[in-house]
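User: Quick sanity check before I run a bigger batch. Here is a single chain. Can you write out its predicted 3D structure?
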Amino acid sequence: MSRTVIRGGLVITASDEMHADVLIEDGRVVALAATGTPTAESWTAERTIDAAGKYVIPGGVDAHTHMELPFGGTFASDTFETGTRAAAWGGTTTIVDFAVQSVGHSLREGLDAWNAKADGQCAIDYAFHMIVSDVNQDTLKEMDLLVQEGVTSFKQFMAYPGVFYSDDGQILRAMQRSAENGGLIMMHAENGIAIDVLVEQALARGETDPRFHGEVRKALLEAEATHRAIKLAQVAGAPLYVVHVSAREAVDELARARDEGLNVFGETCPQYLFLSTDNLAEPDFEGSKYVCSTPLRPEEHQAALWRGLRTNDLQVVSTDHCPFCFVGQKELGRGDFSKIPNGLPGVENRMDLLHQAVVDGHLSRRRWIEIACATPARMFGLYPKKGTIAPGADADIVIYDPHAEQVMSVETHHMNVDYSAYEGKRVTGRVESVLSRGEPVITEREFTGRAGHGVYTPRSTCQYLL
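Assistant: Done. Predicted structure follows.
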């Protein structure tokens, strides 16, 4: 039996803060006791971690990543090995990535392909959502089987006609199936048909720079699609999770639905909280680094997103980590913004940026843990195995130095991409050590993990329903 004791830190979960020691045996948390009490003092272990003056927090759960995703004629630049290693450096100990069904193929083929990519490569634990690109009777039956196996969420797209797009009828059928089998539909809510018209018109006018990516993907078309997805889910009697919410008008749609008592949930991402269309407008094609969908919005939208996180109209912050290098990948769109691969790197930055939001007064410490660890675990059927520090939970634990200062930079990050979306940003707070199921992955700012430590983790159905 291997035992570890973490001593003297401030343990922070979504519900509590307390100065406590944490006892770990065989990869699980077995007890917490107030620091200095006889119970805590009596614990002995092979490994003792001194967390005095530090936070002891659950490992982050990033419920939206795209490692090795094929997109726009290229592939996301992080592999499961490099991406999960970078996640660990940033204090994330579980990712939920997206397996992709290609049109004309089965869900099973897509899931098998992603399992093969990830198997033996991951430094931290992982699970999968399923992108459903081809709704038919066979697909609907497969959804039932996947839910039984622990793949309990399905992503659909109202955007990207000809690639991932589903029409309203296909979406309704999938939602109806989810209402029966307990799955959760995740929606990319943008009116892709209308956006394609605006893209064509912008290019015809010679508007080819990256900033036009944001101008054609209008906030109103995100709001319209969000509204439509909510109404389709209401008709189906199914819960709905809207991914990467970026616009104030879309938040308003979610808030209205939740006020009506509907099981409707929203996720936003650090890029929408910290970046804006000013980045998309950077000269010399630098704006291409910030092309993602939904797009970055004008800065005034940020206040609505922060408010939504405080009022719980938005419940989760994930990264939508989907990195493409500037050289050779983002550059595919020189002269035509519609050919820029959509996606930003961020899996390593999320926990630190959200701690900066605590420093800045946007969030409380417990809310930080709630939106980054506990709620994503509950939303996607991983709680309390993941997302908290409590007896019985996996010992996925981060020792976090709230006073260390760092400057985010491509020079120091560990993601396999040739730029940082937050280059030069100063933040307070930094990961010091990380345990994954009790095993040290980061030890005092050194990587001590290995590819293959991370295991595939089946999930139960959503634990966050009203």
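The longest strand covers residues 397-407.

User: Great, the batch can go ahead then.
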